[in-house]
Structure to design on (247 residues):
C-alpha cells in the first residue's frame, strides 16, 4: 500500500524557523538602536566631534549593515515580496550609512546638516520599535496609538539632543540639557516657550516639533473615544451574560 507524505509538518517547521529568525533580528535591531542612542547621547553631552571618532563611525557603519540585512531577510520570508518592498522601502533608505559615505567621499556639508544626517539610522530604529510595540497591542486603535506614542517619544528625545548640541554655548537661554528638553516638550505640545532658537538647526527643530505635535496629539482623542466605547459595550454585555447564566 502506497503511503503519502504529509507536507504540513514541513510547512509548520518552516513557519516556526521564520518566526525565530524574524524575532531574533527584531531584538538585534532594537539592541543596536539602543546602542546608537546611548553613543550619540554620550557624544552630545561631552561635545565630541563624531566625525573624528573612528570607533563611533565604525559602529554606525556595521549597525547600518545589520539594518540592511534585516530588510532583505524580511523580504526573503515575505509571501508578497513586491508588496513588502513597497511597504518597507523607507526602512531600506534609512538603513544606508549616509554619514560614512559622506565621510569617505569627503563631501563637505555644514555642521548642522551633518548632525541631522547622524540621526538617520536612529529613525530606522524608531520605526522598528514602533512596529514591535504595535504587535503587543490589543486592537487596531491601540496599536496605532502605541506606535505613534513611541515615535513621538523618539522625536522629542532626538530634537532635544539636536537643540542642546547646536544651541548650548551659542544661545544664552540654553544653559543645560534639561532646558533643551523642557523647550522641546513645550514646542511639541504646541504651547511654545520664551526661548527662541538662534541657530539654523534650532530653527528647523522649532518648526518640526509643533507639526509633529499637531499630527500626533489628536490620536489621544481617537484612543480615548475608542476606549470609552469599548468599556461601554463591555458594561452593556456583562449583565446580559450573567442573567443568561442564572437562567
Amino acid at each position: 500500500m502506497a503511503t503519502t507524505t504529509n507536507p504540513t509538518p514541513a510547512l509548520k517547521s518552516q513557519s516556526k524557523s521564520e518566526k525565530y529568525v524574524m524575532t531574533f533580528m527584531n531584538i538585534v535591531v532594537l539592541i543596536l538602536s539602543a546602542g546608537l542612542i546611548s553613543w550619540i547621547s554620550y557624544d552630545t553631552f561631552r561635545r565630541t566631534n563624531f566625525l573624528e571618532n573612528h570607533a563611533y563611525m565604525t559602529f554606525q557603519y556595521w549597525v547600518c549593515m545589520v539594518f540592511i540585512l534585516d530588510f532583505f531577510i524580511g523580504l526573503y520570508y515575505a509571501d508578497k515580496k513586491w508588496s513588502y518592498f513597497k511597504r518597507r522601502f523607507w526602512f531600506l533608505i534609512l538603513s544606508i550609512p549616509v554619514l560614512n559615505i559622506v565621510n569617505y567621499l569627503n563631501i563637505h556639508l555644514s555642521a548642522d546638516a551633518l548632525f541631522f544626517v547622524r540621526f538617520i539610522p536612529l529613525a530606522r530604529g524608531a520605526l522598528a520599535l514602533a512596529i514591535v510595540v504595535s504587535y503587543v497591542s490589543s486592537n487596531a486603535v491601540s496599536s496605532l496609538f502605541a506606535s505613534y506614542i513611541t515615535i513621538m517619544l523618539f522625536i522629542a528625545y532626538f530634537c532635544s539632543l539636536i537643540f542642546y548640541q547646536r544651541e548650548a554655548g551659542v544661545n544664552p537661554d540654553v544653559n543645560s540639557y534639561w532646558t533643551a528638553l523642557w523647550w522641546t516638550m513645550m514646542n511639541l505640545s504646541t504651547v511654545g516657550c520664551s526661548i527662541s532658537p538662534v541657530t539654523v538647526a534650532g530653527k528647523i527643530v522649532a518648526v518640526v516639533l509643533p507639526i509633529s505635535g499637531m499630527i500626533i496629539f489628536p490620536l489621544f482623542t481617537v484612543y480615548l473615544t475608542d476606549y470609552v466605547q469599548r468599556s461601554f459595550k463591555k458594561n452593556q454585555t456583562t449583565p446580559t451574560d450573567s442573567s443568561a447564566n442564572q437562567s
Residues 15-116 form one domain. The mean pLDDT is 78. The CA atoms of residues 30 and 125 lie 6 Å apart. The chain has two domains: 15-116, 137-234.
